[in-house]
Specification:
With 279 residues, the chain is an alpha+beta fold. Helix content is 16%, strand content 42%.
Length: 279
């Protein structure tokens, strides 16, 4: 089943197409992927703006592109500083327009509109989202993040290296509205587990990372609350690990047992990574 659709903002047109393609798990053409994402819509348009739009003109330019294509069943426009999606990312019977645009080097604007019989209602208008991204890359994901089999909206707003990490904002699609989940951007590299219905964060899950960090969050109304955080501070000289539970140093254990103190969601991954990296 199709689960994700990315709209990255990076580089020139060829780079953008490559990123859209490389982020998909299925080796099929981009436009076919987009059709699947929009639940079988018959017509589509894909355009790439190769020229970087000056920041001062981003808002006006994106409004112009939207007005020119708002009647389209499906449309996608990608540019280094703005992207526009018109389609059915949340449910097949509802048409939405999603615009993400960089206002300056550190601020993005996110606008989500809902087509109600030819009239566009505003669901989300986040005017100043702080962003910190390598190579000016932005992405939107559409994936079920609360177990109701409806796609939700995840906006990645910060990325970093060494070790790799990212944080995002989450809007859950409920009753044809989008509800922003507070504190979701506290989760590093967030994932949703359909079994436990919890959110998990992680950073540096391998033996060579020295500091393994995992966290578990639960959804409470319109915000997430941290239920557990575990750090494993590695001492390779002694082949041991100091386990820190909820910011309290708990015990020192052999590295080979570190995975046992992680949330179940990560145990096998930590075990496999430690064993392979130690060889």
């Amino acid at each position: 089943m199709f689960r994700r659709f990315f709209i990255p903002l990076l580089g020139d047109g060829s780079q953008l197409i490559f990123l859209l393609y490389s982020n998909m798990k299925y080796l099929i053409p981009i436009l076919l992927i987009f059709l699947v994402a929009c639940e079988g819509v018959e017509e589509t348009g894909f355009q790439t703006g190769n020229d970087t739009i000056p920041y001062a003109a981003v808002l006006k330019y994106s409004d112009s592109v939207f007005k020119s294509h708002q009647a389209d069943t499906v449309f996608l426009f990608v540019n280094p500083r703005m992207s526009l999606l018109i389609g059915h990312p949340f449910e097949p019977t509802e048409k939405h327009s999603i615009i993400v645009r960089l206002i300056n080097d550190s601020t993005a604007n996110l606008l989500v509109l809902h087509d109600r019989s030819g009239t566009w209602d505003t669901l989300v208008n986040e005017r100043s989202i702080s962003v910190q991204l390598r190579n000016e890359e932005l992405s939107l994901d559409f994936e079920d993040y609360d177990g109701d089999n409806m796609h939700d909206l995840i906006f990645t707003k910060s990325k970093w290296d060494q070790p790799q990490g990212e944080v995002a904002d989450l809007w859950l699609y409920k009753h044809k509205q989008l509800v922003r989940i507070k504190n979701f951007d506290h989760i590093i590299n967030p994932v949703y587990d359909e079994v436990t219905h919890r959110y998990y964060g992680q950073e540096g899950l391998g033996y060579n990372s020295m500091n393994v960090y995992v966290s578990e969050y639960k959804l409470v109304n319109d915000h997430v609350e941290r239920s557990i955080v575990v750090r494993c501070l590695l001492n390779k000289a002694k082949d041991s690990c100091l386990v820190v539970m909820n910011d309290v140093p708990t015990l020192t254990i052999p590295v080979k047992d570190a995975y046992k103190y992680m949330p179940a969601y990560f145990q096998q991954e930590v075990k496999d990574n430690f064993e392979s990296e130690k060889k």
